[in-house]
Amino acid sequence: MQNNEQDLDPALAARIAALRPDLDRITMPACIIDLDQRYRWMNEAYLAHFGRPREDLQGFRVSDAFKVQPSDGRREHLRRALAGESLIFDRETLEGPRRGRWVRASYLPIRDGDRVIGVLVMTMDIQHLKDVERDLAQRERQLTLINDNIGLPMSYIDSEWRFLYTNQPGLDWLPGGTRESSVGRPLKEIVSPEAFEVARPHLERAFRGEKVVYERQGTQPTGAKRWIRVHLVPDIAQDGNVRGVYSIVIDVDDDHRLREALLEQEARLRFFAENIPGPIAFVDAEFRYRFVNNVFLTIRGLGIEDVIGHRVSDVLGPDLSRSFFEPFIDRLKKGEMCEYERLVGGSNGAARWHLVRLVPTLNASGQFDGYYIVGTDVHEIKSSQERLRVAQQALEEKERQLRQVIDAIPTPMVYCDAEGCYRYVNQAFVDYIGRPADQIIGRTVRDLLGEDRWNIFQPSLDRVRAGESLAVERLIRFADGRSRWMNVRLSPRLDAEGRYLGHFATTSDIHEQKMVESDLRRASSILSAHFDNTPLAVIELDTESRVVRWSGQAEKIFGWSASEVLGRKLTGWRFVYEEDLEAVSRQVRDITDGPEPHKTIVNRNYRKDGSVIWVEWHNSALRDEEGRVISLLGLGQDISSRMQAEERLMYLATHDGLTNLPNRMVLTDRLESALSRARRSRTGAAVMFLDLDRFKDVNDSLGHRVGDQLLKELARRLRATLRQTDLIARISGDEFVMVLEDLPDDEAPERVATKVLEEARRPFNVDGHEVHVSASLGVALFPGDGDDADTLIRNADAAMYSAKELGRNSFRLFSSELAERRTRRMESETALRRALKGKQLLLHYQPVVDLKTGAVTRAEALVRWNDPTRGLVMPAAFLPLLEDPELAHDVSVWVLEQACKQARAWRDAGLGGLVATVNLSSMQLRDATLMPALKRILTRTGCEPTWLEFDITETGLMRDYEGTVQLLTKLRSLGVSIAIDDFGTGFSSLAHLRNLPVDVLKIDKALIADVGGTSKAKGAGTGGAIVSAILGLAHGLGLEVIAEGIEKKSQVTFLAREGCTHGQGYHLCPPLTPTDLAKWLKARKKK
């Protein structure tokens, strides 16, 4: 009967929920049964295995679901599992589509603490394993049947040396003759003690993994003794261990007895063979040695084991085998006896001649069965014959070789007898004379040479007849009219008593050599003349470094005469400067030993008067035809003047021309060296960055000459203040860097900084002017503020700028706060550069209005930064970043181009003659690229110069008054209007205003803020009076006036009354985007 799910044990339900995901994924049938033996859950594999739907099983007792009988073992297994026992067993499936298949069932108790609450049942199909077991059993029965009928005793011994198996033939060798009396018993109890001791060492080897074969005489249970051969084969498991040994026994008693008979017969034959003095051997039909006597072994120097059973080719080697035996094999197979003589090498290395007979043997069928080798020593007879033959051949060969050698010599050679007749001439002499040998042999020297040449050589021949050997060189004219220089060597041949028997003559053609010597003498003469007239000193050394040439110019440059130095070694007098000796020696080695034949070196040399000069040497190695160095040639030029000039140039390149202080290049190098010393000595160092405050005002007011003199005096004061070991460098206009090493204590940098600032504050008397300046100083300490030169200089620079921000005339130590501020600034600069490239900058325009008519005449371009994260950023937040000239240039060019495009767009849109106003900073006024850039932009955008107006502040105007006036004049001549911005707050001279090329004055908003009050006066406060004065001045100069920063209507009223024509400010219109400005203009036009 099905049970309600509400009766399910909550603990079991929880375990089912936990196990179910994993059991659903496996392919093994699985189910969970509760304590009441009811199905509480089963996976799909279980349902498929039994072919039942879930509703037939879920909640039913196992006995009800499958009609399990009390005798069925499953009921007992389930009971034991519910009692807490884990079971694994094999059984046959009794129900479902897999009925009859074997499975392996696992009954695993499910516990809640110590309490069993159910059973997890999993089954695995093992039918294939059962099939394999059945097949193995069948094969085992078949193997037993084969083994019992194989006819050879076979048995198996396990690792404990127990007798586990034997086949039927094996029982004949065992006591009792039955398996029951032997199987399972130790081997030692089955066989006799004697047989066990014989078998023991062989079994031990087999149990070590070796295959063993041995023979012994065994005794059967009947008492019969027979020779057997035992094969032991180890049974090796997969892990490499020997788990048993197979034993196979072969009866070899008949073979053993036959072998003994053969050995006895062989012994008799060997006795006879060993007493024969010559080598004897027998080779079978497979050409393997089957017998050799001791003489054979002695001759070959081999042992019996090296020969017997081995093939002839293996014993003698392939070469001897092919020579001694293979040519006769076909005849031997036909039954023919063969005989030959051979020189046979012995074991002692001596070879002896033998007469060898090969006697074939045939078997009962008349087939070739092998052959005997019988040797007889015939060495003494053969040696006598051979010595005679060899001596004759050697004599003939020696004569032939001598003739070949002499004929191969390219030098003509002859032999003449005592009568002066030619007895031998070589081929070179035949070719040289131009006659065949048979026309020369037998004739006299006089006949062959003729009277003229005979008269030349006769005195020399007379000396040779007297026993003298000599060589003569002669220019000889030949019959064909040629004349050539010849070297003739004559050597007499004398007998034992010293009597003249003849002479040998060798002739060498030395004509080319003579011509080369003549050319060399001529070339040497020309070269000497050239060396004597060259402006370079010429010195030649032999291979021992001795002077062999010393030109006149060398004497002029160095002061020593040729007679004073020729023959002396280069290092034998004070010539090469001591510190340059190693470099000179190294170059000499490079030239003589290395691949480069020429090298140039600059070194110092002494002159005779003891002075030192710089010389540039061009050195070469002179070599013969075989590449051997025969001398060294050096060409030297006095370059002392050039070296001094180079030293001066190097000094100028590394030092400031005004103060003679090291410049930035030297600073970095020497600072790194100082830091290395500080690291080694574990001491501190400091870098100070000094910048003069308002130094530009000195240049602008008193001129650059005064400024330069002030800098020179400041450099002198700094040198006097610091130690000699400290470094001072000028790295730009009024910027100095000082490096302090080996600091005595931590307060030393601050004390030095205080002294330096005091020296900078002291008045400077320059060209009758008493000049007062101050300095800002930044200090960075090693190693805390940086570990390299660039970092320390950069951090000292940041500290200096911090001092300037705090009011100047002070010093600051670098800190992490400054580093963070500098990092933020760098990040902001980077972001601004990205903004420029990413089109995040934009221009707003604030119109300028005619206060009488309301017309809009201008619009001032005001840059904004539309940052993606911060939104719209006003100029005050990012304009300080434009102190970087490169960034300032890029932004200003962009603003100028956008304003020109907008001026063009206003006209294209019909918005009248609106002028675009652009602010120029003092940095832009000093930018030499402003005019070329402006012209390119005007051309590119189609903007007319008259549509553009530049605003310049009073301060920017006065910084470089003369240069600014020149630039403004050029701009006005181009058609651009010029306005002075923020007028009234600067300190420009009104006298300058009259001469400035300007068109507009823009009154500063600070003055406008003070006008238009409630007072009945013309203006409230002093601002009104100043504005009125400015308006009167501008009208007097014919300048247009724009009031900036108009915030109230009352200001408009006041300005209009005072005659101000134009105004700008939030009251009139705030800055607008180009689109909004266009809408504003159109709306205003409609009104």
Give a brief description.
By secondary structure, the protein is an alpha+beta fold. Helix content is 42%, strand content 27%.
The rounded distance between the terminal residues' Cα atoms is 100 Å
List low-confidence stretches.
Answer: 1014-1020
Largest pleated sheet: 8 strands, mixed, barrel
- Tally of individual domains: 7
**What does the average pLDDT come to?**
83
Protein architecture, described:
- The chain is of the alpha+beta class and 1087 residues long.
- Helices cover 42% and strands 27% of the residues.
- The strands form 8 sheets. Strands 34-35-37-38-39-40-41-42 form an 8-stranded mixed beta barrel, surrounded by 6 helices. It has a 6-stranded antiparallel sheet with strand order 8-7-6-11-10-9, sandwiched between helices.
- β28 (727-732) and β29 form a beta hairpin.
- The radius of gyration is 62 Å and the shape is flat.
- Mean pLDDT is 83; it is low at 1014-1020.
Keywords for this entry:
1087 residues; alpha+beta; Beta-Lactamase; 7 domains; 38 helices; 42 strands
Q: What is the element layout, followed by pairings?
A:
Elements (H helix, E strand, L loop, with lengths): L9 H16 L4 E5 L4 E4 L1 H7 L11 H5 L6 H10 L4 E6 L9 E11 L2 E11 L1 H23 L4 E5 L3 E5 L1 H4 L13 E2 H4 L2 H15 L4 E8 L5 E12 L5 E10 L1 H22 L5 E5 L4 E4 L1 H7 L11 H5 L1 H7 L4 H5 L4 E8 L5 E12 L5 E10 L1 H30 L4 E5 L4 E4 L1 H7 L11 H21 L4 E8 L5 E12 L5 E10 L1 H23 L3 E5 L5 E4 L1 H7 L3 H4 L15 H13 L4 E9 L5 E12 L5 E10 L1 H15 L9 H18 L3 E9 L1 H8 L1 H18 L5 E6 L2 E6 L7 H14 L2 E3 L2 E3 L2 E9 L6 H17 L5 E3 L2 H22 L3 E10 L5 E12 L3 E3 L1 H4 L6 H24 L6 E6 L1 H4 L4 H12 L6 E6 H6 L1 H14 L2 E7 L6 H6 L4 E4 L1 H4 L12 H17 L2 E4 L5 H10 L3 E2 L10 H13 L1
Parallel strand pairs: 32-33, 35-37, 37-38, 38-39, 39-40, 40-41, 41-42
Antiparallel strand pairs: 1-2, 1-5, 3-4, 4-5, 6-7, 6-11, 7-8, 9-10, 10-11, 12-13, 12-16, 14-15, 15-16, 17-18, 17-21, 19-20, 20-21, 22-23, 22-26, 24-25, 25-26, 27-29, 27-32, 28-29, 30-31, 34-35, 34-42, 35-36
Organism: Usitatibacter rugosus
InterPro entries: Biofilm_reg_signaling (IPR052155), EAL_dom (IPR001633), EAL_sf (IPR035919), GGDEF_dom (IPR000160), Nucleotide_cyclase (IPR029787), PAC (IPR001610), PAS (IPR000014), PAS-assoc_C (IPR000700)
Protein name: PAS domain S-box-containing protein/diguanylate cyclase (GGDEF)-like protein
